[in-house]
Amino acid sequence: MTNAPAGPRWDDPQLDALADGLRVAHAQVAAFSAQERPQLTRQLLVITDLAKRDAVLALRRLESFLEDLNRR
Questions:
Q1: Tens digit of pLDDT for each residue in 36-54?
Q2: Handedness of CA 16, 24, 50, 68 (dihedral sign)
Q3: What average pLDDT score do residues 8-31 get?
Q4: Per-residue CA distances from 46 to 2, 9, 54 (Å)
Q5: Cα(48)–Cα(46) distance, integer angstroms
Q6: CA geometry: angle at 25 spanning 23 and 31, to 5°?
Q7: What pTM was computed for the model?
Q8: Long-range contacts: 69-72, Cβ < 8 Å, 24+?
Q9: What distance in Å separates the CA atoms of residue 59 and residue 34, rounded to the nearest whole number?
Q10: Average pLDDT estimate for 17-38
Q11: How far apart are CA 68 and CA 10, in angstroms?
Q12: Nearest to 25 by CA among 3, 47, 53
């Protein structure tokens, strides 16, 4: 019997979507003015921190964040 970690699988589509979304969000935030970037970056850091505990909720928040960015 092995003691395999009970963490996320490396081929988890949900985590892949979260990682891809975070990459897209960071690229979009980089295009904003120097005045807007710090607040947007803080929001992304909150989402990234949430992903450590609840990937499903983090993905929903990220989708909402991206929608807000696209409306700017």
A1: 999 999 999 999 999 999 9
A2: negative
A3: 88
A4: 35, 23, 12
A5: 5
A6: 110
A7: 0.78
A8: 69/25, 69/28, 69/29, 69/40, 72/32
A9: 26
A10: 95
A11: 29
A12: 47
Domain ranges of the chain: 33-72
Calpha distance 70→68 (Å, rounded): 5
The CA radius of gyration of the chain, in Å to the nearest whole number, is 14
* Structure tokens, 7: 């963490």
- Tell me the per-residue pLDDT of 51-72, one tens digit each, with 9 for 90 and over: 999 999 999 999 999 999 999 8
Tokens of 36: 């807007």
DSSP notation for the chain: ------S--TT-HHHHHHHHHHHHHHHHHHTS-TTTHHHHHHHHHHHHHHHTT-HHHHHHHHHHHHHHHHH-
